[in-house]
Amino acid sequence: MKCFLLSIALIVTFSFFAQKSEEKQRSKHSFYLAAGIFGQTNIFDLSQPSYDYSGITSSLVYQISFPKRFVLGAELLSDQSFFKKEHSWDPNVSNIGRLSGISLGVQLGVNVLRKKHFDLSVLIVPHVNLQKYIVKKHTLHNNETELLKYKSRYLFVPFAAWRFDFYYKFNQLHSIGLATDFNFDIELYDLFGNVLLGVARAMFSYRFTLPSS
User: Over 50: is that where the pLDDT of 21 sits?
Assistant: First the structure.
């Protein structure tokens, strides 16, 4: 069984790296849509659940891939969490909350693998993360519900704002792939405070490359 699995692994690895490179290299303009899941937590205090959210993420990207393998892109990304029970110091109050976030970023990176049917890009994504927290506060003794909203702004930490894009190309125009993120974001107006978000994302994506002239 081990020999069989090893043989399959060798065949897959050989076929992957044996792919021919594209014959003509020119700048390519692409759009891609991606959707998947995200999770975030406060790295400074993992025992504090105030910043722990998970939910659905999606992004729209415009990207240019240059002949020398440099990649430049602009990204609009949305994080929408599920509702969760929030901590309350008052036993007479029950809170549930969710996160709605928008991230605006620039992609800077390198296309490290560029074959006929496969490519892999490694990117750093400088960005601003705008988050809105929505809390439904329910007071039990009078059965009243109040909607509270507050906003925070976060800035990427340069050494950890990574994106990995892996694609299978059906042809020169259409590709599907997997995109993964790992970011550290720090509160914009409190750079030396006690909030450092760790944000991770995994998304399936579809890429459309504009036809070359």
Answer: no
